[in-house]
Design goal:
Helices cover 18% and strands 45% of the residues. With 124 residues, it is an alpha+beta fold. The chain folds into 2 domains: 67 residues, Signal recognition particle alu RNA binding heterodimer, srp9/1, CATH 3.30.720; 50 residues, 2,3-Dihydroxybiphenyl 1,2-Dioxygenase, domain 1 (Roll). The protein has an 8-stranded mixed beta sheet with strand order 2-3-4-1-5-8-7-6, with helices on one face. A hairpin with a 5-residue loop joins strand 7 and strand 8. It is globular, with a radius of gyration of 15 Å. The relative contact order is 0.19.
Length: 124
């Protein structure tokens, strides 16, 4: 699925409180995804469907960021798309990098300020 939202990440400086809110308000449950560099939890619905990832922003590349939801869109040829976005006024906040099993990802700020992440899937 290209050019569509495929994932959403909540960046929070108080991820435990955010998880408690969603656990109590909508019944989500959480599983630790990784605690290597930055602790991340997968939010799952009652039928075990992955819904989102919650990230401890205090230990991320954006420790002072306000809590925000970050959508991920799948694009073809991430590096080319990032270059085109920069030419149109976007600011790259996190340079393209490879994440095993996920693909190549980058985070950018649109010319008017919106923040979004793009990804090209990992080769199969």
């Amino acid at each position: 699925m290209r050019d569509r939202p495929v994932w959403v990440v909540l960046l929070s400086r108080n991820v435990q409180s955010a998880m408690q809110f969603y656990r109590e308000a909508v019944g989500w449950r959480f599983e630790l995804l990784t605690d290597e560099r930055v602790a991340c939890w997968v939010a799952k619905s009652g039928d075990d469907e992955p819904l989102a990832v919650f990230v401890d922003a205090s230990a991320s590349d954006f420790p002072d960021a306000r809590e925000l939801w970050l959508p991920y869109f799948t694009v073809d040829d991430l590096d080319r798309r990032i270059s085109e976005a920069e030419a149109k006024g976007a600011t790259i906040l996190r340079e393209p990098s490879d994440i095993p099993g996920i693909g190549r990802v980058a985070t950018l700020r649109q010319p008017d300020g919106g923040i979004v992440a793009w990804r090209s899937p990992a080769a199969s």
